[in-house]
Structure formats: C-alpha cells, structure tokens
Amino acid sequence: MSKLVRQSLLMLVLLTVLTGVAYPLVVTGLAQALFHRQANGSLVVKDGKAVGSTLIGQQFSDPKYFWGRLSATTPNPYNGGSSSGSNLGPTNPALTEAAKQRIAALRAVDPGNTAPVPVDLVTASASGLDPEISPAAAQYQVARVARLRGLPVARVAALVAAHTRGRQLGVLGEPRVNVLQLNLALDALQKR
Amino acid sequence: MTSNDILQLGLYLAVLLLLVKPLGGYMARVFADAPNRVTRFGAPVERVLYRLCGIDPAEDMGWKRYALVVLVFNVLGLLAVYALQRLQPWLPLNPQHLGAVSPDSAMNTAISFATNTNWQGYGGETTMSYLTQMLGLAVQNFVSAATGIAVLVAVIRGFTRRSAQGLGNFWVDMVRSTLYVLLPLSLLLSLLLVSQGVVQNFKSYVDVPVLQPSSYAETLKDAAGKVETREVPVTTQTLPMGPAASQIAIKQLGTNGGGFFNVNSAHPYENPTPLSNFAELLAILLIPAALCYTFGRMVGDRRQGWALLLVMLVIFVPLLLTCTAAEQAGNPALHGLAVDQHASALQAGGNMEGKETRFGIVNSTLWATATSAASNGSVNAMHDSFTPLGGLVPMWLMQLGEVIFGGVGCGLYGMLAFAVVAVFIAGLMVGRTPEYLGKKIEAHEMKMASLAVLVPCALVVVGTAIAVMVPAGVAGVANPGAHGFSEILYALSSASNNNGSAFAGLSANTPFWNAMLGACMYFSRYLLVIAMLAMAGSLAAKRHVPASAGTLPTHTPLFVTLLACVVIVVGALTFLPALALGPIAEYLMSAH
Question: Smallest Cβ distance to B480: which of A92, A114, A124?
Fold first, then answer.
C-alpha cells in the first residue's frame, strides 16, 4: 500500500509539472507571441491609454449613448471583477419587473418611440458583461441618440451599420453591435 | 425555429460526426495492447514517467487492483487540490491576494474536480489564485478525464479478453490518455481560443477608465444600527486576467466544465466569439462521441460502436430541438409588455434572459443540451433563466445517468451498463441466457450493471428529498414557487451524475450544500467505477461464446430502439414525479 501511495504521489507530481506548469507556460508563450492583443484582453487603446476592452461591456445610462444589455453584476452593473447573470426564473415576478422598469426608462428618454422594445434590451445577459446588443436593439435607439446629439438620423444609422457585425464565417452566432465601440465612435464623430 | 437555427445545429452535428472516425481510430491505436506507430512515438516519455515513479508498465492488473489504484491516485489528487486552496494566500502567483478558501468549500471543490464533475460553488475570479487554478484545478481536469478514459478501456477489455485475470494497467491507460489524447487536443484548442480573444497571461487584473462614469447606492449600517445610503461613484472598470485559455481548452475537452470565471463560458474572456463558441461546443462532445468508435474497433466490430452512438443521437436530437423550440418561443411572462421577442434578421428574439447576444438562442440551447448530455457542465447561458421546458431538457439529460455521450470514458461505460440491462431484458423476453459481445451476462454482471444504473438515481431522489426537508437546504433557493424546487432538483441531478452545471441562483456555497453535493459527487463517481470494474473483471474471466441463431444481435435497429427505450424508461419512471413538481408545474403555471 505504501508503495502504491508513493507511486501515486510521484505520478501526481510529474503530471502536475507536465499539465499544470509546462502546458500553461507553453500556451502562454505561444499566445503572447502569436496573438498578443487577444491574449491580453483585447484592450481598446485611445491616445496610448487603455479605455476598455472590446469584449467587456460598460454601463451606459446617459441617453446620449447607446445602452447595452441589463447587467446583474454586483454591487454595480458591468462590474468586470465579478461576472454574474440574474438567475431569475422565467416566472419570477422580479424578472417582469426589471423588464418593465427598463421599458419605462427607455420610453422616458424617448417619449415619441412606441415601437415594441427588442427583447435583448429588457433582459440581463448571462455574464453581466455582454459587450453587444442586437442590430434591432441598436436601431431602436438611433432616433433618440441622433436627436440628443443634434446629429442627422442617417448619420447615426450609418455609424450603427458600420459597427454591425454579421454572423461569423457567414453562419455562426448572431448579428450584433458592439456598444462601447459604437459609443466611442459617436464621441469621436462630434469631437472633430 | 428559424432556418439559420437549423443550419447551425446541422453544421455542428455534421462536423462532430465527421471527426468521430479519425479521432476514434486514433484512440483505438493509443490503447491497443500491441505497440504501434502512435505509441512508439511517445514511448520514451512514457518510459521516463514510469521509471521515475517506480511503476512496472507490464503489470496486468486484476479488477480489484485496478480499482484500488484508481481510488488511491484520485484521493491523493483530491487532497492536493484541497491543500492548494487552503494555502493559497501563502503561495505564489496570487496577484489579487485572494484569501484561503473555507474548509467546506475547498473540500467540495476538491471532490468536484477529482470526480470530473466540476460543480462550482465559488466564483473563479474572486476566489482562486492563478496557482490554484493551474496546479490544482487544471491538473485535475486532465487526470480526472484520463481516469474516466482509463476505466472505460479496462471495461472494454472485460469484453475482449477471454479467460483472463487482468484488465490492463491503470498507469499506462491514464498516462496515454493524457499524453496522446488530452494534451495535444488541448494545445490546439487553446491556441484557437486565444486567437478569438480568450485571455492567456499572468498579469494582475487591469483597471480601465469607463466612458460614462456612473454611481450606485450602497447601504451601510453604522455602529448604532442606523441604516444609511451613500452614492459610490464608478469611474473605472476592473478587467480580470489570467491563464484562462489553457484551462478552458481542457475543461471543454475533458468534460470537466469548471470555468476560469464565475459565469463560465458565458464570460466574454472565456468564450468571446461565435467561432470560439463552436470550437468549445465541439470539444464537449468530441471525445465521448469518438470513444464509441474506439469501442467498436477494440471489440472488433465497428457496428457495435456505431449502434451505441446512434442510441445517443436518437435521444439527443429530439431533446435538442425541444429545448431550442422552447427558448425560441420566448417567455410568456413578457407577452403582455411592449417587448419584441420575435426572431428576425436583426435579432435572435426568444427568451434572452441569461443569454449573450453573440450566441442568441440556438447556440445557447445547443450548448445547454450538449453540456448536460455529456457530463461537461460548463455553460454559456444561465440555465436558471431558461423557460420551464427549456430547462427541463438539460435537467432530464443529466438524470438519464449521463450516458447520452456522457463524460469522457464514464459516459460510455455507463451506456455499456445500460446495454447489459437491455440484453438482459431481451433475454427475459425470449427465455435465453443473455449475451453481449460474446460474453454471457449472468447474475453478477446484472447486479453490477443495476448498481451502476441505480446509484445515481437514488442519490438524486434521496438527496432532493433531504434538501427540501431541512431549512439549510431550502435557504439556498433564489426563485419562488416551483422554480425554486427545480433549482434543488437540478443541483442534486448535477452532482449525483457528475455533471457540474447548475441552476445558478441556488446559493450552494454553504456548509450544508457543500457537504451534501460533495457526498453525492464522490459516491456516484467511485461506486460506479468499482461496480463497472467488478463487472469487467468477471466478464474477462469468462470464455467467449460464439454467436448462434439464438443470439440477439446488438448492432441492429431493433437493439438500438430497445436500448434507447431502456434508457428513457429508467429516466422517466424515476424522475417524472419530481419533474412534475418542478419544471412541469412551472410550465403549466406560466401557460395559464
């Protein structure tokens, strides 16, 4: 038995060196050499400084910006240090209440818009950090953002179109718009 | 369902099935007794490992010896993971200065990773240091998966060997699984994932300024017990970092499922694009599906392997379509509001609560179905927020005993237990001694197969009963009504079948839940290992019975149907009453 324990311990140590040390180090080395930007968080760099990540959403509640998904992270939405979904069940009244509040908030800043709200704008994402919304959700907000920024609707619509990504390789996933990148582009547009 | 939904599902299944034969054939060579092209290539590394450990690779282990080695090796791994979590504040590679994990949570996690369950009561980015993730969790991802494959190979040898005492050598089977199968595939997958944006570094978390500063209200209690609220400004965002890709690759391939981050593969740093999603999805079912072909090759009749794969698909595909249709139909609770849940060219529509925009409906339901069919347990959407019927599918797939693909190795040996039960039932119908793959199935084999089928069922049902009766169990529930019961039933189904996914609203990081689920994971995994090895040991000792006119062929549509029915009937009879109290009741309520 003691021989078996010794063999097991040695095997565990050796496999730890192989799969727990060598393997992640090799992957890190290759990743840093081949895919430097991606391996380090796909940061958005403006004037030499990181201002966010293309992959991690940020909280937007100012009506001049496009809004993203609801986020259930705590203590504040889009807390990158603590990902979380709402885990509200489909029949939980709290889920319906959150949707109602979001609809009311959207209507309050855009009273003329009576179209039904795209579902991704009234629901919380799985990660609480979803960087994207559907093209429908972006288009729903175009008129509001254009009006509050004093821009022609067509201009903002064109910007949304330019930031809309189709399905990857033509089939995979869903079409989507990156909210942070879109809002950065909006700000850049008006600075000029 | 939209036509693109069908296209994406079809593409996934087509690519998966195309890879079954090449990978399955390769693995058959890896585990062949005679040296061959593949095993000669890695022989020098293998020799060094065995010599350093003082292991004789030529030792042919009987089933008891094989089982003992599995248990000792696994328990030591479990203790190592426990120690790493308890000691992490004093160990290197902990840039966030995360504290020691509580004893009950650490033990739960150690069992969870050693048993290939990867149930997570904790949030990765707020709990585990890089060192714990690498040396503890990632290593167990490899060796628990390799253990599963090794036990499967030993069970297959029970059928192929004649009048033999031994089932092979655990060390050789486990080391080969790791070296030849898991490591190379993980290396490829991790690089693909990094190219898509999965992080892989050893940096501290990065703070970036936010574009639109905001604030949130924090409620504080002062010394006098007076509650006051203050506004906390938010001007920066913390971006988590770490060696994620290397660990995510193996957690997908090894049907482990333990995420680097709290929300697992829903996290944009863990699964950033539809392509990374496709690759991670493929990795879930790849090895379990290919092992069916390996099995066919090893028993010398490929049709036997295809038949088992067909049984899995026959159950998998309808459940996949059910889940997708239920989620795509949307949440009836939002029908009365001004919300557009219809699928169109501009949005996925459907029940988007707890789902990511880039995955939409179809990639979330495909993942939920695959991860619960295989005992992977990783998630890319929050199952707790699925519609009642959409959530029933992953729950029931786990309750079927994790044999529809199942965990790497353990899924197929679970299915072999069901196959033995199926030939026994067929034998009863015609009044002949049942045979499977040329071996007579007698009382001892039936006892062991029944044990393997019934142990997880019993753990789920009894565990759920206990949890709903004690306050500490009910205290963890997050959602009201029938859905709260579903959370408990899901947790027990997940732990007792070594899956690891969750209706994550359940607050399971408490001493009661950590102990309860830890016990379920442990007994389910190792009782099954022992039962299956005992069956294999007795089968190996038997003589080969040549097929005669009275032998039930086990590669025909008739047998595929029979086996699928046995799996479904056991799952339905055991769990329908419980399901009726959870998801079915919720469905009836939500449909009015």
Answer: A92
Cβ atoms within 10 Å of B475's Cβ, excluding its own: 11
Q: Tell me how far apart the alpha carbons of residues B72 and B114 are, in angstroms, rounded to a whole number.
A: 12
**pLDDT more than 90, % of chain B:** 86
Q: pLDDT digits over B442-459, tens only?
A: 999 999 999 999 999 999
How many beta-carbon pairs below 8 A join chains A and B? 393
CA B581 remoteness from chain centre: 25
Chain B from 261 to 320: CB within 8 A of any A CB: 261-263, 266-269, 272-275, 277-278
| CA separation, residue B322 to residues A79, B8, B120, B317 (Å) | 34, 15, 27, 9
Q: How far apart are CA B182 and CA A165, in angstroms?
A: 34
Show which of residues 53-82 on chain B sit within 8 Å of chain A, judged by CB atoms. 53-55, 68-69, 72-73, 76-77, 80
Final residue belonging to a domain, choices B239, B254, B284:
B239
Same domain, B380 and B483: yes
pLDDT in tens, B288-302: 999 999 999 999 999
Closest to B281 (Cα-Cα) out of B505, B27, B11: B11
What pLDDT, in 10s, does the model give residues B66-82? 999 999 999 999 999 99
Looking at the fold, whether B95 and B229 belong to one and the same domain comes out as no
Tally of structural domains, chain B:
2
Residues B69 and B98 placed together within one structural domain of the fold: yes
Q: What are phi and psi of B349, to 5 degrees?
A: 65, -160
B106 inside 8 A of chain A by CB: no
CA B493 – CA B499 distance, rounded (Å) = 8
Summarize chain A as % helix, strand, coil (round to 5). Answer: 50, 10, 40
Residue B364 and residue B270 share a domain: yes
* Structural domain that includes position B225: 206-239
Contact B33, B173 (CB under 8 A): no
Predicted local confidence at residue B592, as pLDDT:
57
Nearest CB among B262, B330, B356 relative to A125 is that of B356
